[in-house]
Amino acid sequence: MSYSTGSRALTIILLLVGCSDETPATPSAEKTPPKRNVLLDATAADLTFSERAGAYIHKPSQTQFRISQGWQVSPPQMKDRVSSLRLQRNGDEFDVTLTWSPMKSELAEVVAAELKLFRQRYGEDNVGLIERAEAGGKTGWTVDLASEADNEVPRRGRVYWFESEATNDRRWKIKLRASFPQVADAAEIDKLLTHFDWTEREYGPQRR
């Protein structure tokens, strides 16, 4: 994404905003992630675990996400072509949900719509300013949530959005949403961005 393209997308988001999130089941074993999706519909699994890569691979979007030591992984789930993966660390101190979903609209429009929902749910003062984010050379967007209610205990939140364009001309939204106890803990969530791989080598070239 060029600077001019990114600036245009940011303008679209701000104009649309005006200035749904998936939570799978409880975690399983620590280092050995499950290899099969828990399918909630009749479609084939999109998100599979590669022992060789130590990562979950989402072939339709040509992306993969590597799992590191210390994170507990729940079985991946998929419904209506939306795949989700939940990671937790230190019990539920760090709680992360990744989703892969096909997009019909531009990413900027999708982000703007979700920002509106966040502001309606949490209040204007609890939703930060949209900013650029980068993961493995891919540029996307991020926003902080100042307070998330979890059993009436205040928690911080951070959301990232990225887009992957596959060779079949289908565009995918890759979203990472995390909750954690304190502002300083956000650095641990940022480290997860280095676990994304947007590979052309294994799945073929992406359309430019």
Structural features, described:
- The structure is a single chain.
- The chain is an alpha+beta fold.
- The chain has one domain (3-197): Protein Transport Mog1p, Chain A (3-Layer(aba) Sandwich).
- 17% of the residues lie in helices and 38% in strands.
- The strands form 2 sheets. Strands 1, 5, 6, 7, 8, 9, 10, 11 and 12 form a 9-stranded mixed β-sheet that branches.
- A hairpin with a 2-residue loop joins strand 6 (77-79) and strand 7 (82-89).
- Helix 1 runs parallel beside helix 2.
- The chain is globular.
- The relative contact order is 0.17.
- The model is unreliable at 19-30 and 200-208 (pLDDT under 50).
List descriptors:
alpha+beta; 9-stranded mixed beta sheet; globular; disordered C terminus
Q: Give the name of the CATH superfamily.
A: Mog1/PsbP, alpha/beta/alpha sandwich
Termini gap: 10 Å
Q: How many DSSP-defined strands?
A: 13
| Portion in helices | 10-25%
Largest β sheet strand count, sense and barrel closure = 9 strands, mixed
Structural classification: alpha+beta
| Bulk shape | globular
What's the CATH C level?
Alpha Beta
The helix tally amounts to: 3
Strand content: 35-45%
Do you know the CATH topology? Protein Transport Mog1p, Chain A
Number of domains: 1
Cα Rg: 17 Å
Strand/helix succession: HEEEEEEEEHEEEEHE
Low-confidence stretches: 19-30, 200-208
CATH architecture descriptor text: 3-Layer(aba) Sandwich
Rounded mean pLDDT is 80
